[in-house]
Write a structure and sequence with these properties.
Number of helices of chain B: 6
Largest sheet of chain B: 9 strands, mixed
Radius of gyration of chain A: 21 Å
Strand order of the largest sheet of chain A: 5-9-4-1-2-3-10
Helix content of chain B: 25-40%
Number of helices of chain A: 9
Largest interface: A-B, 87 and 80 residues
Oligomer: heterodimer
Strand order of the largest sheet of chain B: 11-10-9-12-8-1-6-7-13
Bound molecules: flavin-adenine dinucleotide, adenosine monophosphate
Number of strands of chain A: 16
Strand content of chain A: 25-35%
Shape of chain B: globular
Structural class of chain B: alpha/beta
């Protein structure tokens, strides 16, 4: 049988999260004796196909290259994968637990008439998986009775494999049909020279305690010294200090860097859900009672407006 | 245009849940229950569409036991016109819920279905996309803005890198993100009025939907707790510690 991973990409390069999802697929493959295939669906995505084919542990790369798949709209992509599953004898479809992955996976599962399993963090066997529920406060071990399993993979639980060292067979698929249901208008992607939040080794995040968006410069200065990504709490995003793509938490991004520095963040359950698997957590907060201190390896009870310039100078 | 909103009764966002000692589930006895926050945003959006004359009727649906009537009444107090409870004694899985909702979308000839992006108990983030698939609708997930124009829904979506704008043919399915709107509070007169708004019950059998579960929960565990940390006195000490840890 074949385990299919749907690649996430921008028609130029593979998303880093696809490396984590492939790692999960290979963990599964080692238990089931299956091979791993990667689907690259897009338009003018030849560089992605090459990257995909040179990824270790990938046996096959299936390519669907047509205008209807340019933005990988779920309405057009899902039926294509349904056909692929039927034609190729696929037992599992794995997708990253990113905004794009979460958009497509349930649509695909429903068309296949199977359940979808969200946020895989551990593979027990071909049918049994572990996933967090209740903002990560409980871990559920679940067994699926469906013939095909559709799963989204939590990136932080699987160490990404490199897009190199492989030599996969490339096979072209027929074009997808434009279902005529949806149309892409535009995209505003926040450009930044800093590392991507979900793959950064160090993250420094600010909360409502930052008081305004301009003060995030204080965090950015520290971030630039140590090559960190900058994150935020929901309160900071809702207040308009920073953009939505920076939100860490249950309903934002899930991160697990080597070092997470929470600045002016109280540590609500929903925020902790997004960062409590970080290796080392530092909390900087004036409130001695702030719950963030309960998960912090190192807590500094002090005013962030004093601490951040000092920290920048010390690094 | 008719708008359907699906609401789920969940453990309140502020409750710190506990795993049962026999690992069979999460202890939800005697904890505060609420309408899922993302569903509250969905109700608000639908009510605004009605207030602006775009929608004629807002139908709110919940799948659950009789306790979920409380959340349906909340939605009615916030401005929904009528409510449907699909009776289910046990908690159903997203695929089954999506099938039930799809039948209602069809029966009621709904032009727009608005769901939350995620229930904060199961953290599934599935039901909306599944409903869209089953009903053959376009989907605008994680919406932070919605506008109905010339028979299309123009939706701004929160994606990982920023924002994406799409045009969706009606009928369409929208799931709400946190920034879509700020839900209102129900006023006392509206809470009173909501008691007299229609609420009907219907069974999965009447909708001819197979709700048998596809997933079995074998056990529920508590994640490993983090080791107790320490306080540092100043920045110098902090930097020193982080260097020793090898993370700086
Ligand atoms: C459905 C739902 C989903 C949610 N999803 C998320 C999510 O994904 N991510 C998320 O983060 N939240 C989420 N939340 C919100 C969450 O519940 C909290 O409201 C939010 O995390 C609080 O953000 P905060 O810590 O920045 O603000 P606050 O709780 O207001 O904390 C601010 C902190 O700053 C400290 N402070 C103030 N001034 C200073 C100073 N000068 N120096 C040092 N410290 C200072 C204060 O002591 C305080 O502890 C969600 C909530 C709901 C209901
Ligand atoms: N039992 C339910 N009854 C009504 N709507 C539901 C139910 N479960 C989920 N939904 C809807 O689906 C959304 C996403 O839920 P989920 O897929 O469980 O994360 C929720 O915000 C609701 O709008």
């Amino acid at each position: 049988m074949t385990i299919l991973v749907i690649a996430e990409h921008n028609n130029q390069t593979l998303a880093l999260a696809t490396g984590n999802t492939l790692a999960a697929a290979q963990a599964l493959a080692s238990k089931t004796g299956s091979e791993v295939a990667l689907l690259v669906a897009g338009e003018d995505c030849q560089s992605v196909v090459e990257e995909a084919a040179s990824t270790q542990g990938v046996a096959k790369v299936w390519v669907a290259n047509c205008a209807a798949l340019k933005q990988q709209l779920a309405e057009n992509l899902a039926p294509l994968v349904v056909d692929l599953v039927a034609e190729k004898g696929i037992s599992h479809v794995l997708v990253s637990s990113t905004a794009a992955g979460k958009n497509i996976a349930p649509r695909l599962a429903a068309l296949l008439d199977v359940a979808q399993i969200s946020d895989l963090i551990e593979v027990i066997d071909a049918d049994t998986f572990v996933r967090p529920i209740y903002a990560g406060n409980a871990l559920a071990t679940i067994k699926s009775s469906d013939a095909v399993k559709v799963l989204t993979v939590r990136s932080t639980a699987f160490e990404a494999i490199e897009f190199s060292g492989g030599d996969a067979l490339i096979e072209s698929l027929s074009d997808a049909v434009d279902q005529g249901l949806s149309r892409f208008i535009s995209e505003e992607v926040v450009a930044s020279d800093r590392p991507e939040l979900t793959s950064a080794k160090v993250i420094i995040s600010g909360g409502r305690g930052m008081k305004n968006g301009d003060n995030f410069v204080l965090l950015e200065k520290v971030a630039d010294k140590i090559g960190a990504a900058v994150g935020a709490s929901r309160a900071a995003v809702d207040a308009g200090f920073v953009s939505n793509d920076m939100q860490v938490g249950q309903t934002g991004k899930i991160v697990a860097p080597d070092l997470y520095i929470a600045v002016g963040i109280s540590g609500a359950i929903q925020h902790l859900a997004g960062m409590k698997d970080s290796k080392i957590i530092v909390a900087i907060n004036t409130d001695e009672e702030a719950p963030i201190f309960n998960v912090a390896d190192y807590g500094l009870q002090a005013d962030l407006f004093d601490v951040l310039p000092e920290l920048e100078a010390a690094l | 245009m008719k708008v359907l909103v699906a609401v789920k009764r969940v453990v309140d966002a502020n409750v710190q849940i506990r795993v049962k000692s026999d690992n069979s589930g999460v202890d939800v006895s005697n904890v505060k229950m609420s309408i899922n926050p993302f569903c509250e945003i969905a109700v608000e959006e639908a009510v605004r569409l009605k207030e602006s004359g775009v929608a004629e009727e807002v139908i709110v649906v919940s799948v659950g036991d009789d306790a979920c009537q409380e959340q349906l009444r909340t939605a009615l107090a916030l401005g929904a016109d009528r409510a449907i409870q699909v009776k289910a004694e046990s908690e159903l899985q997203p695929l089954a819920i999506a099938k039930l909702l799809s039948k209602i979308v069809e029966r009621e000839e709904v032009s727009l279905a608005i769901l939350g992006k995620q229930s904060i108990d199961g953290d599934n983030n599935q039901t909306g996309q599944m409903l869209a698939a089953l009903a053959g609708m376009s989907q605008g997930t994680f919406a932070s803005s919605l506008e109905i124009k010339d028979g299309e829904a123009i939706v701004t979506r929160e994606i990982d890198g920023g924002l994406q704008k799409v045009a969706l043919k009606l009928p369409s399915l929208i799931t709400t993100d946190l920034r879509l709107n700020e839900p209102r509070f129900a006023s006392l007169p509206n809470i009173m009025k909501a008691k007299r708004k229609p609420l009907v019950q219907i069974t999965p059998e009447e909708l001819a939907v197979d709700i048998s579960p596809r997933l079995t929960t074998l056990e529920i565990n508590t994640p490993a707790a983090r080791a107790v940390g320490e306080r540092v006195a100043n920045v110098a000490e902090l930097v020193e510690k982080l260097k020793v840890e090898g993370v700086l």
